[in-house]
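Reopening this ticket.

The earlier resolution said the output was attached, but the attachment link was broken on my side. Pasting everything inline this time so it's all in one place.
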Amino acid sequence: MKNFKNKVALITGAGSGIGRALAIQLAESGCNLALVDWNEKTLKETEELVRKKNIAVSLHPFDLREKDKIESLPEEIIEIHKQIDIVINNAGLSIIGKVDEVNEDDWQFGVDILLNAVIQMSTVFLPYLQNRQEAAIVNVSSIFGLFSVPKQSIYNVGKFGVKAFTESLSLEMEMSESPVEVYCVFPGHIGTNIYSSSRFKSFEADDAGAAIFGAKASTIEEAGTQFKQNAPSSPEFAAKTILNGIKKKNKRILIGFDAKFYDLMSRLFPKNFLKIIWILPFLRGIFKPKKYKPSVNK
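Inline output:
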């Protein structure tokens, strides 16, 4: 897919972070948007930012655990936009706690949004995408879909599952010579609110889960602030990397130096990787956050 002009893209988690940055940059490219988020207030804020770009925008505020809403979404979007070309499953959440601290409700809640919604969204839109000359499904996993860390068992399971599902779907599309291109995205540490908005089952001063991101905090609020401020990559940089990856047909999109570093180290030193993951937090200050510069339309 060389350009996005006059395409229609659906984005989940469009109310903030990478989802909002994707919406803005796609709008700058002349792409029409169907935006999904559970938070109607932040979704409308994103709408205000993209409406100035002279594109068509529709809002679909609902919880991705509502399977009936997902089932009816393709027809709803076709009725409004007459087509669908790109589906970006970006929405996510984090439940932080040790395995013996999280319960069955936590697992159901987390896996439903992190994995089951991605599977259902990809599945219900696939027949419509198959009818286009070119189309794309973009599923956002994580570096935590490449390796596991303490206190993130639910997130790890969800993101590993997204990776496995997406790679399988991608192979099936290639084997059938489908017009649908399937991409799996692995963001590193991106400056969003995902940590501060997590469901915490426990937290300790200098918590191990926060320390992985270079945070040394005594409270959840402090850790959330440090997580966002210390991030080596911004949501805007992440969105730009994703869109460039689609244009280049790079089916495996790693975002940030940390994602590339951890991916390589987990392959080269699988037995000692738990020791290696603590290296980057000490080097965090060396790598400055990457800034996105909006393109100037001529």
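Reporter confirms the inline version is readable. The domain at 8-194+234-268 is CATH 3.40.50.720 (Rossmann fold). The longest strand covers residues 180-187.
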